[in-house]
Amino acid sequence: MEESTFHVDTDKGFDLSAALQLKPNAPSDGIVILCHGLFNTRFSKTILCVIERIPYHTLSFDFQGNGLSGGTTSYGNYYEEVENIRCIVTYVRENLNRKVLCICGHSKGAAVVLLYASKCNDVPLIVSLSARYDHTETPSNRFSPEQLEKLQKKGSFVWLKKGNIEYIIREDDLKKRNSLDMSVVESIDKQKVKALTIHGSKDEVIPVNEAYTYDKLIGPEPYHKLVIVQDANHCFDNINHQKIMTEAITSWLDENKSWAFNEI
């Protein structure tokens, strides 16, 4: 695998850090863009697993305010991250002179990818790994009682620190996230876009029934395919589950790559 790193200008005063992974004998010249989850980076275990195990060319990047990218991030900035994806897609087409075959996201990144698809309808294949549908409530175990008390009294608290980056949770972030309407996936154009959802049956972060909701809204096949990986958790940490997950992605891309580039 040949990897090159670069930065993508967003025209908003900051760059996005990205890396292109070119595979020998790839089944397509198209690029699969990979999107990481909440407060993570392109080096997340799930993203690295997909890079290593699928034979297609991939491009991974850090969303704004994460990893090596500039800008700031927040708990509810889903549509800002949609614009990040738009910048990456444009860069691939205009600077790398390649087609975008697929966008694949994990967790929060998966929800962002679905929002991008519903808004733009310009990338033919979409893969969603462990995506949340219902954002109306914050998981009760995500924040401590002390953090929630600080939120009530001061309006914000530092949730996590990674290196020099502080991830701050604000009241506005929670309101924005809780009002996120994922039913917009119904507007994904079935003539232009096909989607694959993969979810672990024992996802401890996002209930597996969320995947069935997406199947009802985007499906049926061939417009949407649902794969439930038995006993897999949110990040597909088990090696066998990783194998099942990445083989499902590869076989689905193989089945649909010709359709994708005939349609776009």
From TrEMBL:
Which InterPro entries does this UniProt record tie to the protein? Answer: AB_hydrolase_fold (IPR029058), Hydrolase_4 (IPR022742), Peptidase_S9_cat (IPR001375)
Pfam families, alphabetized = Hydrolase_4, Peptidase_S9
Q: Which SUPFAM superfamilies does the record cross-reference, listed alphabetically?
A: alpha/beta-Hydrolases (SSF53474)
Which residue ranges does the record assign to the Serine aminopeptidase S33 domain?
27-135
Ranges for the Peptidase S9 prolyl oligopeptidase catalytic domain? 177-256
Q: Domain of life here?
A: Eukaryota
Any one Gene Ontology BP term? proteolysis
GO terms assigned for molecular function: serine-type peptidase activity
Protein name in UniProt:
Serine aminopeptidase S33 domain-containing protein
